[in-house]
Amino acid sequence: MKSISEISFFNFINSNNKNGESSSSSSFSSTISVEEVVTKKIDSEEEKQDSNNSRDYFKELTESIIVNETTEIIKTTTKLPNKQRKKKRRTNNHGSKNRTIQVVENIEYRKGYFVNSRGYKLVCQEWIPKNPKGVVIILHGYGDHGQTLLADDCKMFAKLGYASFIFDQQGHGLSEGLTAYIRDFEDLVEDSMLFISDIKFRFPTLKRFVYCCSMGGAVGLLVSLKKPEIFNGGLILLAPLIKLDENMVPNPLVVSILRWVSQSFPTLPIVPGDNVLDRSIKDPQKRLEHATHPLTYKGRARLGTGLAILKVTSYLQDHLKDVNVPLLICHGSLDRVSSPKVSEELYSLAKSKDKTLKIYQSFWHGLTCEETSYIIYDDITNWMKERLNKESNFETINETATPQENINNNDNNPIGAASF
């Protein structure tokens, strides 16, 4: 969400022309498009429908809901670990030097969609290795998508033997819906649970790890509160959006004005403030690469979206004590989008017996865009590997990680994803 400045907001509302006549109305009306007016009417109908019908979060599927449009076999090459290389060395008949064997494996990639209860097609992707040992489901952040960086994360997990899945939330990436408009986080939760239910139906015996970035962390936590049994592997939170940085939160008076305007025009992209990417990604080149991608949302936050974020973060702060799933919480100490202090509160208050907190010193919000992001990937993959063992007993862990850790282990570092 873009930061909301009290001064800049009132400058927008009260801007006057040289004749002393208010010019805010013309600026305001110029941002209204036919698409937004139509969307407002559709959303109004959806609200009426939601008030009359309770959502079926706990629906068990009897067949897959995914419509596959593309299937491809991806060949991957994996170097054997050092201990296994010695056993696999071989010499040719001419007495040449030993050569290391590389394992070539096939990963089945599929791209398709499913249709949510509101009739929108949501694009999804999956990478399935032969005989997967577990499942990874990625929930992306605000304005983001699963078409580039997070797709690379999926490929990485698939190479490690995990069936990996991601979908673009409504209004994000390649999915249908007004771009970056969130009417209610319950919509995102419903769609995420439907997607996860499909994966559970197809891979019922495998442990599921839900890997969440920023806003995806808020969605993941909401899902865990409604259906904790989904997380038989664990919930992995990267800079979860539980509380906005205090510099991004307007005072109650500004929120009241925003709420009043949003009643009539919830889809207007007029929330002022700095671009969230400037606060998320430390490296200027990586920031530019992500910002210039055509599927990354670069406009101002819509009024309804901003209010939905404020609403859900307030709710989550009141329900941290009710979280009761295996947790790995990762946060940067210099995060200027979501507060790392609330991640510490989540760790402290959650009922989970198996919970781990890692604070990475000097890291920003986009954890996996850091130069030493391999530290995070090592922590995540090791944590998952340990929990594949059903007999393991885990204790709570609270650690502070620094960029100097594992400095010699920067081999095959996967490309990380920016999280918002």
UniProtKB/TrEMBL annotation:
Residues 82-92 have a biased composition (Basic residues). GO terms for cellular component: membrane. It comes from the Eukaryota. One of its GO terms (molecular function) is lipase activity. Transmembrane segments: none annotated. This is Serine aminopeptidase S33 domain-containing protein. Residues 131-371 form the Serine aminopeptidase S33 domain. Coiled coil: none annotated. Residues 77-98, 400-420 are annotated as: Disordered. It holds the Pfam family Hydrolase_4. InterPro entries: AB_hydrolase_fold, Hydrolase_4, MAG_DAG_Lipase.
